[in-house]
């Protein structure tokens, strides 16, 4: 059974708007919104209407292209100057996922040798479309490599949401489960709910259920017990930014899972495209960690569950040191060992 036809496209270029799946409404409602301004794109990324490193990169690229089409510059110099200001504006929506910067920078590079405002506008649109198209094949390849690591009828634990809606299609870590389904392999997945935004409970459980993948939802604080007692064969997670030495920023809670996997001698895999690898930074200490609003923690479904004025710390990501990562699964293969050398070598293949 080929499940790919059933994927919901999380974002679609409409020529004068971006059709976006509003992930804040899932799983109860499948709502599409149409973004018509760069400000709406910024807000959709910041408020997690669209989230997932590759997905926010693609959406930001469409946002920049949309702004270009709507601008009325005659001076190419002025247009280019404002273009860079809009890149910085979009990058400010979320600081951790390097895909946001990677996609926007790719658009800027794509018009370096192009001249004429109208020509530049056209190239920006085409490059953004190309990024989404390429991401589909990239994620499928990651899924194929990820699946190759799992034993027959494996039980796997995953964190947050790294599925088709977090990318252009297939996802990264979840891609392995989709490929398994296509190949008739029956995997069992434990999905952690992933407080505070509940990407696991709301999105991963929903995506895998829709795809007919056996998924069991657990709370984050059950992970140790599950890894200790449920014969889990592997842990696989996504990434938002991977430093040159393999240190990986991912959803808060990932670091704890990596230590638990080590303690229980379970392989710990990171699945990510090369657009998530930032060779410009040497190690995880340089990765900016987004801090989000206290309301994400003090409220559940709009109801206050913590006292007024309580101190809150809400980092959206943590950094897993490379020594806790068994392998990094990319579209160009499975990277192991000396990540500083291997990531650089494999990146040259991309
Ligand atoms: C392929 S999604 C990668 C990554 O993005 C998620 O973060 P967020 O939901 O805040 O955008 C999570 O860390 C995933 O692992």
From TrEMBL:
GO terms for biological process: L-methionine salvage from methylthioadenosine. Keywords: Amino-acid biosynthesis, Isomerase, Methionine biosynthesis. Substrate binds at residues 51-53, 94, 199, 250-251. It is an enzyme of class 5 (isomerase). The active site is at 240 (proton donor). Its EC number is 5.3.1.23. It catalyses: 5-(methylsulfanyl)-alpha-D-ribose 1-phosphate = 5-(methylsulfanyl)-D-ribulose 1-phosphate. InterPro entries: IF-2B-related, IF-M1Pi, IF_2B-like_C, Initiation_fac_2B_a/b/d, M1Pi_N, NagB/RpiA_transferase-like. GO terms for molecular function: S-methyl-5-thioribose-1-phosphate isomerase activity. Pathway: Amino-acid biosynthesis; L-methionine biosynthesis via salvage pathway; L-methionine from S-methyl-5-thio-alpha-D-ribose 1-phosphate: step 1/6. SUPFAM superfamilies: NagB/RpiA/CoA transferase-like. It comes from the Bacteria. The record marks 160 as: Transition state stabilizer. Catalyzes the interconversion of methylthioribose-1-phosphate (MTR-1-P) into methylthioribulose-1-phosphate (MTRu-1-P). Belongs to the EIF-2B alpha/beta/delta subunits family. MtnA subfamily. This is Methylthioribose-1-phosphate isomerase. It comes from Jeotgalibacillus proteolyticus.
């Amino acid at each position: 059974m080929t499940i790919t036809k059933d994927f919901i496209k999380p974002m679609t270029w409409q020529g004068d708007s971006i059709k976006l799946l509003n992930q804040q409404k899932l799983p109860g409602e499948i709502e599409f919104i149409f973004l018509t301004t760069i400000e709406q794109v910024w807000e959709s990324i910041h408020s997690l209407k669209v989230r997932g490193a590759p997905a926010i990169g693609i959406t930001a690229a469409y946002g920049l292209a949309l702004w270009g089409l709507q601008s009325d510059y005659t001076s190419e110099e002025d247009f280019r100057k404002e273009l860079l200001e809009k890149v910085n504006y979009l990058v400010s929506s979320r600081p951790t996922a390097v895909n946001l910067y990677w996609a926007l920078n790719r658009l800027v590079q794509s018009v370096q040798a192009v001249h004429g405002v109208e020509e530049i506008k056209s190239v920006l649109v085409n490059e953004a479309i190309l990024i989404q198209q390429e991401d589909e094949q990239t994620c499928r390849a990651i899924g194929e490599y990820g699946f190759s690591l799992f034993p027959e009828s494996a039980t796997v634990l995953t964190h947050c949401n790294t599925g088709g809606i977090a990318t252009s299609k297939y996802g990264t870590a979840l891609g392995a489960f989709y490929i398994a389904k296509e190949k008739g392999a029956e995997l069992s997945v434990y999905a952690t709910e992933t407080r505070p935004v509940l990407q696991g409970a709301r999105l991963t459980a929903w995506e895998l259920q829709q795809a007919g993948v056996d998924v069991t939802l657990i709370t984050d604080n059950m992970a140790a017990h599950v890894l200790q007692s449920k014969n889990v064969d592997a842990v696989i997670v996504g990434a938002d930014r991977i430093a040159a030495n393999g240190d990986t920023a991912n959803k808060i809670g990932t670091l704890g899972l990596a230590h638990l996997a080590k303690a229980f001698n379970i392989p710990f895999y990171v699945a990510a495209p090369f657009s998530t690898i930032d060779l410009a930074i040497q190690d995880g200490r340089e990765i900016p960690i987004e801090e989000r609003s206290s309301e994400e923690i003090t409220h559940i479904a709009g109801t206050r569950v913590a006292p007024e004025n309580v101190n809150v710390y809400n980092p959206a990501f943590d950094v897993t040191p490379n020594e806790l990562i068994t392998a990094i699964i990319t579209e160009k293969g499975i990277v192991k060992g000396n990540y500083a050398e291997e990531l650089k070598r494999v990146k040259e293949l991309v």
